[in-house]
Design brief:
Number of strands: 23
Strand content: 5-15%
Mean pLDDT: 78
Number of helices: 28
Radius of gyration: 37 Å
Largest sheet: 6 strands, parallel
Shape: flat
Strand order of the largest sheet: 6-3-2-11-1-10
Distance between the termini: 50 Å
Low-confidence stretches: 1-5, 22-31, 321-335, 353-371, 635-640
């Protein structure tokens, strides 16, 4: 490759620029040891008397950390006011701050040499740092620290004031602390020679920032610690001024102009591409943060140069081919043959169009929607065997509580309707308890009469009653050392409740017909679908037994109150019954709209019945009719929405004119965008029923005549084209139906969710069908 002397000079200048950027980035990249993170969690606050904490706990923790050899201790909390209820704790805390010079506090502002804390005490400003919001802005999932920002927590981990604006990416998930405050108070923190950061993470007290990328709610204290960690490790980027970025872009454009002028060699073209690559590498090494738009503009010269190379190469090739074929006569096609070719081509296009239209109107709704196999089941808690739920389900909170209470030796009362899975939850608690190696015994109290339940639970001796030929151990003895699950405890008699109360209080009982006292260690988990408070008011349940059983209560909501779990449970059942059966998003929406009064038990039975009915009709997909539900919601119908009806009638009164949306919004006291989204929803609803524009317009306007029918049709067609374009863009981007619905139509009223899901499936299936043809 031939490169002129001027090219060599430019190349040397570029390498010099890269070296300068690398050296500048190394000033930030001096990594230090990360601080020890100690979190004050909600559990800590509850264990130490509730929020706000007594200041003595901070003092004890600070003393223990100093004794453990902490270098510096940063307490990300401000103490502007005194605790009037515990003045002695404030004195103890202030004494600790005075005697330990390595402690730094959060201050709202620093305007003097000292600040006021605890209402009337002075604390050196040199030992304070400003909050996160004073020095950082959040934009596009990034924390941006302005030039010269100082006295924040992050600045303590950098030797000099920030010389330029730094950029730090938001964390992808919540930070995992090293220790808790409770462990710090007990002196269990290993922090010799290291800095320590103590911060608060308490819902309802801490300030939160929600990441749009991950959906995580991050406290500003966590972000402060995160910024400090990133600065300490050198994992930061910086923003270059706009004129510097523009100069780099211009530098990459100059070789392209030089190449266009040089038509006899490709050398400058390759040099221009190499220059762009070096600029990219230099910015990456120098940790410079630039927008994707700038990268696209910088890559433009490369694309243009490659295009010029291709055009010139093809031009040269065409000239060569013409030179070889200049003496040959061109081939001609007879007029009759040309007419036949054009006729066949037109016939083929017409036949293809007709087939496409037939497919669009012939295929039934659920038939062409049923193309998707059951998805993979989410695994939220791997140890929660036979308990299936969505990541955003209320069951996550319930199981989290169950896991915590399982480790405590207290009775548990599980409430919930029949079929919600109370026994599954009891088994989960047993597996997470210290008694997991022993037996888990379950008995349904409602299925036995008073005599049977007593002999079943306590056992009996030989000859105790007719048929008792030999002694038998009861369920209490079988569950000794383990867990006894008493289902439907509300169905028991008052006489049995007295005997059960004695066992719970003393841990002893006698078998039926026996006199020997038997002692057992059993954990009781009771469950009922009834309201025990109402039974107590009716004198059908003992109040003292209720308080004995209700050591901790867990309420499992019915399936209709957690529709997000219906898809998970249904697909789980389908995987085990017949994994080859196809389903649709519209079918899932229909399932979520059902009452499911029998809860999980009814859903499982209905799924088995639906698979059997589909097999009888030799279908590999499911229809709502297959489930044979007595109280069934419509397959796909508009949800009841009075506002939607009111907006449609108002639009009809204004004849869907150009200013009808604004007029309706003013009449109903709504925002114009709200009326627009409801109109779009109605169009989707009617278009989902019939894809003919005339029928959609007819259903929209109702019985009212319109003065300007043509303008109305054009406006509705524009809406339809816009909806179909959004759906097609989502399909082309390989987005799931849920993402298309929630992201590209995020403002669409929930009334029209089922119609939108159906339309997305129609477009997707039509595309697949046409492609296969």
């Amino acid at each position: 490759m031939k490169i002129c002397f001027a090219d060599e000079i430019r190349l040397m200048r570029l390498f010099l620029l890269v070296l300068l950027l690398v050296s500048a980035s190394m000033q930030i990249g001096q990594a230090k040891e990360l601080p020890v993170m100690i979190v004050i969690s909600e559990e800590d606050c509850k264990a130490l008397g509730g929020w706000p904490l007594d200041r003595k706990w901070y003092a004890i923790a600070l003393q223990k950390l100093s004794e453990s050899g902490a270098s510096r201790i940063f307490l990300d909390l401000a103490f502007p006011h005194a605790d009037v209820a515990h003045p002695e704790s404030d004195d103890f805390f202030f004494y600790t701050l005075q005697t330990l010079p390595n402690i730094y506090l959060l201050a709202r502002e620093l305007t003097a040499d000292s600040i006021t804390i605890l209402s009337d005490k002075r604390f050196p400003a040199a030992r304070c740092f400003l909050p996160f919001s004073e020095a950082f802005d959040i934009k596009n999932e990034k924390m941006i620290a302005k030039s010269g920002a100082a006295r924040t927590l992050a600045s303590f981990f950098y030797d000099e004031p920030f010389a330029s604006t730094l950029v730090i990416d938001l964390p992808k998930k919540k930070l995992i602390s090293d220790y808790s405050l409770h462990e710090a108070i007990q002196g269990q923190v290993d922090c010799r020679g290291r800095d320590v950061v103590i911060y608060l993470d308490y819902a309802g007290v801490s300030s939160l920032v929600v990441s749009e990328r991950s959906g995580e709610a991050l406290t500003t204290a966590e972000l402060e610690v995160w910024a400090a960690m990133k600065v300490a490790s050198g994992d930061v980027r910086r923003l270059l001024p706009a004129w510097q970025l523009g100069a780099l872009l211009l530098l990459s454009l100059l070789p392209m102009l030089y190449y266009i002028r040089k038509t006899d060699t490709f050398d400058p073209a390759f040099y221009a591409i190499g220059l762009n690559v070096l600029v990219f590498v230099g910015l990456t090494i120098a940790k410079v943060d630039v927008s994707p738009l700038w990268f696209g503009a910088n890559a433009l010269p490369v694309v243009m140069i490659i295009g010029v190379i291709i055009v010139r190469s093809r031009h040269t090739l065409v000239k060569s081919m013409l030179a070889h074929s200049v003496e040959k006569e061109p081939q001609t096609i007879a007029p009759t043959q040309q007419a036949k070719i054009e006729s066949k081509s037109e016939e083929s296009r017409s036949r293809g169009t007709q087939q496409s239209e037939d497919l669009r109107y012939r295929l039934e709704f659920y038939e062409h929607l049923s193309h998707r196999l059951p998805p993979e089941l989410p695994q939220v808690l791997p140890d929660a065997e036979d308990i299936y739920f969505a990541p955003n389900s209320p069951m996550v909170t319930i199981l989290t509580k169950a896991e915590q209470v399982a480790k405590r030796e207290i009775p548990i009362l599980i409430l919930g309707e029949s079929g919600v899975g109370k026994e599954k939850l009891a088994q989960f608690i047993h597996r997470r308890s210290e008694r997991r190696e022993k037996a888990f015994i379950a008995i349904n109290c409602g299925a036995l009469n008073e005599n049977l339940i007593e002999s079943e639970l306590f056992g009996y001796e030989a000859g105790a009653f007719t048929g008792a030929t030999k002694a038998k151990a009861g369920r209490f003895e079988q569950a000794d050392g383990g867990t006894l699950f008493l289902d439907e405890i509300g169905e028991t008699s008052l006489a049995f409740q007295v005997k059960l109360l004695r066992v719970l209080q003393e841990g002893t009982f006698e078998r039926v017909g026996g006199t020997k006292t038997i002692r057992v260690s059993v954990r009781i988990i009771a469950a009922t679908h009834q309201s025990l408070e109402e039974l107590i008011a009716e004198k059908r349940f003992r109040e003292d037994l209720f308080y004995r059983l209700n050591g901790f209560s867990l309420t499992v909501p019915p399936l209709r109150e957690r529709p997000m779990d219906i898809e998970v449970l249904f697909t789980h059942f389908l995987h085990h019954i017949n994994p080859n059966v196809k389903i649709s998003d519209a079918l899932l929406e229909w399932l979520k709209a059902q009452a499911w009064r029998g809860n999980v038990r009814e859903l499982k039975a209905a799924t088995e019945r639906a698979v059997l009915n589909a097999a009888l009709y030799r279908r590999d997909f499911l229809l709502p009719e297959d489930f044979e539900l007595k109280e069934s919601a419509p397959r796909y119908s508009l949800k009841s929405d009075a506002l939607a009806e009111k907006i449609l009638q108002a639009l009809r009164q204004h004849e869907f004119k150009h200013r009808a949306i604004s007029a309706v919004a003013a009449e109903l006291g709504l925002h114009r965008a709200t009326v627009t989204e409801y109109l779009r929803g109605w169009i989707i609803h009617f278009y989902n029923q019939s894809e003919l524009l005339d029928e959609v317009c007819e259903k929209l306007r109702g019985t009212l005549p319109l003065k300007d029918e043509g303008q109305f049709r054009e406006r509705i067609k524009t809406y339809i084209d816009g909806v179909l374009e959004k759906i097609q863009l989502g399909i082309d981007a390989r987005e799931p139906d849920e993402v298309i619905r929630t992201q590209r139509f995020r403002n669409l009223p929930s009334t029209f969710e089922i119609d939108l899901s159906s339309l997305i499936q129609k477009v997707r299936h039509l595309q697949l069908t046409v492609t296969s043809k």
